[in-house]
Records
---
Amino acid sequence: DAGVTQSPTHLIKTRGQQVTLRCSPKSGHDTVSWYQQALGQGPQFIFQYYEEEERQRGNFPDRFSGHQFPNYSSELNVNALLLGDSALYLCASSHQGSYEQYFGPGTRLTVT
Amino acid sequence: GQQLNQSPQSMFIQEGEDVSMNCTSSSIFNTWLWYKQDPGEGPVLLIALYKAGELTSNGRLTAQFGITRKDSFLNISASIPSDVGIYFCAGLVSGSARQLTFGSGTQLTVLP
């Protein structure tokens, strides 16, 4: 049973560029949440997708956007990258009826 | 927004010792989750708590949902080297679309 997978593992971008990160949820899960984890801190909620719609959003600017596909996989897009966007981006999946979220290994984004 | 205060920030213990850490909040949570994160990886779910006063075990780990619903505790008995890592508490607020709020983590080091 495959767990949550994310790609790519690492990414280096230049300030002002755009980036797309991808996530495949655990088998049987239909809800995907994205979190940003800065070095030395706990993950911060970005947004959550269910039934291909953004269901809730954390305190992140509109430069952060996402999408969920019919197969429940999801993308996180960040436009106009800033140095402060450098972080580990985590995807978590869950089933609609459960509060338990299972995390992928993350994508390490470095903005130079 | 909600904040979780997690303590201690770091712990150095001898192999075989018991460990206790806790999480407190000014807000009420209706679900508490405890995660462990190893370097370069995503958080792994250890224990989920759903009722005030609930005590749940997972092997050598025991967690409790505080009576006031504003705190939670994690105990690790007879620590071993593979317990090394960062432990995070995470809470879900009543009515939330499953947005997790994380503490800042407890870095555990187990000395041989």
---
Amino acid sequence: ETGVTQTPRHLVMGMTNKKSLKCEQHLGHNAMYWYKQSAKKPLELMFVYSLEERVENNSVPSRFSPECPNSSHLFLHLHTLQPEDSALYLCASSKGDRGNTEAFFGQGTRLTVV
Amino acid sequence: AQRVTQPEKLLSVFKGAPVELKCNYSYSGSPELFWYVQYSRQRLQLLLRHISRESIKGFTADLNKGETSFHLKKPFAQEEDSAMYYCALNSLQGAQKLVFGQGTRLTINP
């Protein structure tokens, strides 16, 4: 284990459901990220949090809502998703220091929207 | 805007042959370049970064600012090198924003 844990590993949800993805790291990192990985597109950066403040929102639809209550936890709240939102959602963390930006990834949550 | 391009989605070579995975980037500031690798059933992990100038598992990559490239090379491929490889760029200025290319699936044939 590299220290970044994502739950659940798999999630199936209907378009009217509300669910949340959780990411946890105990590596002492200050920056956390959400990425979307789908079959036909490269890894898409969704959100970046640095010191619990959102510093990047990469034109993500509002049906995705991130939350970073502290430097160890990151959530992605999902609401009224579409089938095209089905993908692997990856969380990552890094120290966030210049020249020390290696990102450590979780194993991802495989989301299926039906 | 930051952009990373990996022109090859698939690359197949024979064991013992040289390997080169191409990566080009677009960024007006000072970039930090990485190669990440994802082996079968494993999570995405860092392979190497341009700042450290290391050779990891026989792989090297040189940042060419004139050609805005960061190609990954290995002189003699091994079967265990089969994996998905991603080139990534981070800004050395401003907020962290690690952007990935589309990835290249490398298959080493015996």
